[in-house]
Design brief:
single chain; about 55 residues; mainly alpha; about 90% helix
């Protein structure tokens, strides 16, 4: 999932470089949403791993 975040961020940077601000803004929003989903899943898996050890 983090890979897709980086891909959308690169797409946003390239689109912004060529002046496609609408596409760049959309790609940044998608990258931001995917990043927060990744962080939530990562924290959840860490928490579940700690509970499993006990």
């Amino acid at each position: 999932m983090l890979h897709y975040t980086v891909v959308f961020l690169v797409v946003a940077l390239i689109a912004a470089l060529f002046g496609f601000t609408g596409i760049a803004a959309g790609a940044v929003e998608i990258a931001r949403i995917l990043f927060f989903i990744f962080i939530l899943l990562f924290i959840g898996s860490l928490f579940m791993g700690l509970l499993r050890r006990r």
